[in-house]
Write a structure and sequence with these properties.
Elements lengths: L2 H11 L10 H12 L9 E7 L2 E7 L8 E5 L13 H11 L2 E5 L11 H15 L7 E6 L1 H15 L7 E5 L11 H4 L9 H12 L11 H4 L8 E6 L5 H13 L4 E6 L14 H24 L1
Parallel strand pairs: 3-4, 3-5, 5-6, 6-7, 7-8
Antiparallel strand pairs: 1-2, 2-4
Keywords: Hydrolase
Protein name: Monoterpene epsilon-lactone hydrolase
Pfam families: Abhydrolase_3
Length: 303
């Protein structure tokens, strides 16, 4: 838990903010460059498949995978990112759990605004169930916007009458498109990655004029989480989106849901990506893997 490590990561993420909003192409290229610096475990096996109507990357551990599937939703503000940019997270999760991961290449805004991403992730989950996978052996996991999709996809699945997965893991999830959390103000300047302007820029592409207060856009503000499976929320104190997690945890508790709010001090958005650079990243992934292993095993025995 080195202060020097945290300072190194902060400096990597902190850069001058351009006077004009960046184009979509620039945002996507910059994110690919950033994530290419992240460590991906050696020995993992990957191949592209089709899940529902979308491509997905199957990520398997070096050893034969156990009886569990992590359905993974990558981050990127619904505008950028891919299963490739999330490979450090999926790769580490499969190595630490022994389960396989299926990372969904859902459609992105502005070409495909809300609700395209949720349609794709729900379609992927439905296809996984149709293939014979048991919900007790499936967990949703995701980071940032994809962390938000873990919750909204579960909402959509419940509304569609589908069984819910065994567990949900969300790394620094984006859960409030209204941007009304107090941390939007209290962490401004402390957060090395985001500004309100940058969040509003990509958020508007996804919203495309929709009311942000609806549950599928702002579950931390308006979702009913009744009947949800156990949830693990991991977030850092240096995030403008910190209160997305704290408020969703409160809603989950009010709904009688088993929820763990795992807050790490002095780390940025999706700090789990910095495995090998930041001790807190490796430790958080260990906790997430333990949570997934416990929940999938318990549900398998019960189911």
């Amino acid at each position: 838990m080195s202060e020097e490590q945290r300072a190194q990561v902060d400096a990597m993420l902190r850069r001058p903010h351009p006077a004009q909003p960046r184009s979509v192409a620039e945002i996507r290229a910059d994110f690919r460059t950033l994530m290419a610096q992240m460590a991906v475990p050696s020995g993992i096996r990957t191949r592209t498949i089709t899940l529902g109507t979308r491509p997905a990357v199957l990520v398997e551990p070096p050893e034969p995978a156990g009886a569990g599937t992590i359905l993974y939703f990558h981050g990127g503000g619904f505008v950028f990112g891919s299963p490739g940019t999330a490979l450090t997270l999926t790769g580490n999760l499969v190595c630490k759990t022994g389960f396989r991961a299926l990372s969904v290449d859902y459609r992105l805004a502005p070409e495909h605004p809300f609700p395209a991403a949720i349609e794709d992730t729900l379609g992927a989950y439905r296809a996984l169930l149709d293939s014979g996978a048991q919900p007790s052996a499936i967990a949703f996991a995701g980071d940032s916007a994809g962390g938000g999709l873990t919750i909204t996809t579960a909402l959509a699945a419940r509304d569609a009458g589908l069984p819910l997965p065994a567990a949900i893991v969300a790394f620094s999830p984006g859960l409030d498109m209204t941007r009304t959390g107090a941390s939007m103000e209290t962490k401004a300047g402390i957060d090395p990655l985001f500004t309100r302007a940058s969040l509003d820029h990509t958020g508007a592409m996804y919203l495309a004029g929709q009311d942000p207060e609806q549950p599928l856009l702002s579950p931390a503000v308006s979702a009913d989480l009744t009947g949800f499976p156990p949830i693990l929320l991991q977030v850092g104190t240096n995030e403008m989106l910190l209160d997305d997690s704290t408020r969703l945890a409160a809603r989950a508790r009010e709904a009688g849901v088993d929820v763990i709010l795992d807050v790490t001090a002095d780390v940025p958005h999706v700090f789990q990506s910095f495995t090998g650079l930041l001790d807190e990243a490796d430790e958080a992934l260990d906790r997430a893997a333990h949570f997934l292993g416990q929940r999938i095993r318990i549900r398998d025995r019960a189911g």
